[in-house]
Fold this protein.
Amino acid sequence: MARYAQGTEVDASRSKAEIEHILERYGADQFKYGWDGNRAVVGFRADSRMIRMELPLPDRRSDEFRFTETGRPRRSDDAINEAYQQEVRRRWRALALVIKAKLEAVETGIAEFEDEFLAYIVLSDGSSAGDFMRPQIAAAYEHGVMPKMLPLPDGIGEIQP
């Protein structure tokens, strides 16, 4: 199966700049990105929500880069590095596509902002809504028990007599 942006020549820095432009165009008022080991992180604020999306980066030492698609060893370190950089470029293109598609769906009225970005919304403790909910969803399916509601700070959301 073909992978999105396979063979792209668009440099990762251009994709990052494109993501920033997309976010500005759709009304984000903060943007940052960085990397740590084998992951990159894009963060932004839009619709009064803090969003953090992580992009897993490939392991440069992976056999995926040391060998060709037919299983033959790549002949040089330059060839290995080019295969690695190609995958990095492809992943950044994919992230730009995802962000643009989600924001366009919101802009067009197909979806609500929270629906598109729910898993990536940063909670007050720094975790994401996805981090909070994934184990609860798994338990709900495994045990047939509904997950608990997202806890609110004292006094917020309580029913007053």
User: Anything to note?
Assistant: The longest strand covers residues 39-46. The longest helix spans residues 77-108. The chain has a mean pLDDT of 91. The two ends are 59 Å apart (CA to CA).
